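Appendix B.2, paired examples.
Example (i):
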Amino acid sequence: MNSTERNDVASGFGHIAVAYAMGKTTSSEFHTSRFWWLTVACCLLPDVDVIGLVLGIPYEHMMGHRGFSHSLIFAVMVGLLVPRLAVPHLPFRSRSFGVLVLYFSCVTMSHGILDAMTDGGLGIAFFAPFDSTRYFFPWRPLIVSPIGLFEFFSAWGMGVLWSELLWIGMPVTFWLIGLKVMRRVRGLPG
């Protein structure tokens, strides 16, 4: 099976690791269980488009896999809606609300960015609905991940996990260690 015939995503493990690192970068005042559940939901949400494959929407269609739900506009729309769910009492015009809009937009956007670094598929429609062109980054070190639990227990699945450990896990670990050291030096919590 070549990389354009495989299920073409970074694994959920990689998406969640990046979102976790992003969340740890925010102020600890936001770190409620609701915040973390919404963080995970936002980083995985773009793959809701796989439902379209079951419904007969062609992969290359704007609403197909890696189409509109992987776009920057979609990420911003999610980012505008989710802060109200994360912290219901937060005033709409407050600085903290704006920080959460930016945060949840970036977490959602991180999904398409990671997928654009995989070695398969048709690319990401970053500028949908205005442009249906699919893009990859020039550097694509991530092995395309299988969809489904049992495929992870194959040579392909193990290759994906090693690839993500190297290209996602190690940078995330270094980032989190750096954050911890920086906060300790500044006398900040966390």
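Example (ii):
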Amino acid sequence: MSVIFEGVLWQYMTLFILAATPWIELLLVVPVGAAMGLAPLPVALAVFTGNALPVFLIVFGYDHWRKWRSVHPKNEKTDRGNNRRAKALGIWNKYGLPGLAMAGPLVTGIHLATIIALFFKPERHKLLFWMTFSLFVWTLGVIAVCYAGLEAIQYLMSQW
């Protein structure tokens, strides 16, 4: 049975699944791929697609949830969340969607940042663009730092 799960393809699939898992962000998965000795480009592709796929599912799932919720309204008061909403709206107004998207992987995780952005009702194509662009930039940056760091460590170790 262990023979089935051996091989490089399974390692990349594991990185993809880890990247798609909420709270396990590319900031953790890319170094794992680098430490495993995997090639940078396939690691970047696996991690990027693993993080981006749930963003698209969240955005399109939110539309379905909102339609369902309009058919099944709640009888709950909404004034208890006004203070939190006001603070979040202030942050949104100061930094906007691009700021939330670029800070998302570092601060909250891209999945939670997408959910937060949805509550401000941005245009869907802008939300998907900024979240995907943010993941692209962060993936390239983390790949560059991890693999350059590994090369530097290997160079220093060979000098001893």
